[in-house]
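For the sake of transparency, this paper describes our internal protein records without simplification. The remainder of this section carries one protein's record, kept here as part of the documentation:
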Amino acid sequence: MNQDSRTPTPRGSGIWGKLGGAGLGLAVGGPLGGLIGGVAGHFLVDRVGAPFGPTPRDVIFTTGLVALAAKMAKSDGVVLPSEVEAFGRVVHVEPAARAGVTRLFDLAKRTTDGYEAYAHQLATTFGDEPALLEDALDGLFQIAGADGAIHEAEERYLRSVAGIFGFDEAAFRAIAARHVRLPNDPYEVLGLDRGADDAAVKARHRALVSEHHPDRALARGLPAEAVAIASQRLAAINAAHDLIVAERGLR
């Protein structure tokens, strides 16, 4: 990613400190800009990174993740604490910002924009960086599974979002395998056929560890608050490799 395309994270305030007023929402534009503009004043911590400078991509990422998570939650008109807590386990939220995140969840659930509008804006913004879209989908899987299971309606929702993001069925299954048990798991997790030889398994694992290391996630623009997404993904990759090693009696 071009370093000039990213807005530096305000020291001490993280992603939430960037939401500095309705002007930022206008600068972002689209349905996510509307959400930001609707709640930004509640998040104001500082004005580092002028709101009319380069589009703050980490703000778009995190707001999009909130919006899609909110749409995935039950539309009962009330934001349950567990829903916000699940998001907080994926994207770190300081205690002072939790009330604002609840407002953002509530607004996203009540807006007339459907989840498709938010997903399409993320797909457009990060179309040249599919790894960031994969980060968003991984985050949604983690939020969906926070209650110990990913339900059928959630699976359909996630599959639809994945399609908007441009992931085909094979890519979706590989992502899903990191979060739910699939028939070919753990090979699905590594994107391998069960007949792959030992050398191919070793090479694929090394490549995935390098690609999905949390440091790489930061380098490609994933907000510091959301590094848990990459960390949990790497843990799933390592766990899948360990299962294959044990199954084959490798060292």
In short: Residues 3-248 form one domain.
